Amino acid sequence: MIFSRKRAGAERRTRDERTTEVLDQGAEASALVRGPYDISEVDDDVQRLDLGSLHIPAIAEVEVRVQADPQGVVQQVVLVHGDNALQLGVFAAPRSEGIWDEVREEIRQSLLRDGAAAQEVEGEYGPELHAQVRTPDGPTNLRFVGVDGPRWMVRGVFQGPVATDPAAAGPLAECLEGLVVDRGHEAKPVREPLPLRLPREIADQAGAEDGSAAAEPREV
After folding, report:
1. What is the CA radius of gyration of the chain?
2. Are 56 and 64 in contact (CB under 8 A)?
3. Strands 218-219 and 2-4, how do they pair?
4. I need a labelling partner for 10 at 20 to 30 A (CA). Which of 41, 50, 111, 185 fits?
C-alpha cells in the first residue's frame, strides 16, 4: 500500500536533543536540533501520516510504503524517494538509558555471521553501521542509523546511493528529522516493537484485502 505525500509548510519544533550555543556576548541561545521527536515535544501544524507509534511528516515526492496484515497492523514501513529508500522501525527502551549501542553491536554481529562486513562510522546521529550484503540482485549497501529517545529508539535502514553517500538523503533526511514518536504510557518489554497501524480511514477502505499488496498511489 503506497501513500503519496504532500509537503508541509510549517516549521518543526525541537526535541530533547538540544544543543546550547554560546554567543560572543556571553548570552546563551537554544539551537534547533533535528528530530525524531517525542510527541510530548511537538506543537506544530506539520501534516503527518499517523501510523500509531510513528507520525511521518509529509514531504514532497516521498512515497510511504506500508505493509500491513488484514487487521490493519503494520508490519513494515519504507519511505522511498527515487533510487533511495529508508526503512523505519520503533522500539521500546528503558527510562534510564538508550539501547542503540547494544542494538548496533547485535546488528554488526548478525551481519558478520552472514558473511557481510560491517563498519562503524560516526554520522549525524552518532555511531552508525555501514554494510554490504548479498542479495539475489547482487551486492547491496545498507546504512543503519539509530536514535535514542525518551523510552524509545528509532532505527532507520538506508538503502540505495544514500547508503554510501549520506549527503544524498535529501527528502528522506527531512522525513527522519521530522519524525514523531508516540510511545504511549503503558509498560512494554525493552526492544519490543511499538505498535503501528494504518490510519482508520485507510484500514476501513482496505477491508479484507491483503495489506501486503500494493495499491494505487493515494493522496493523504
Report:
1. 18
2. yes
3. parallel
4. 185
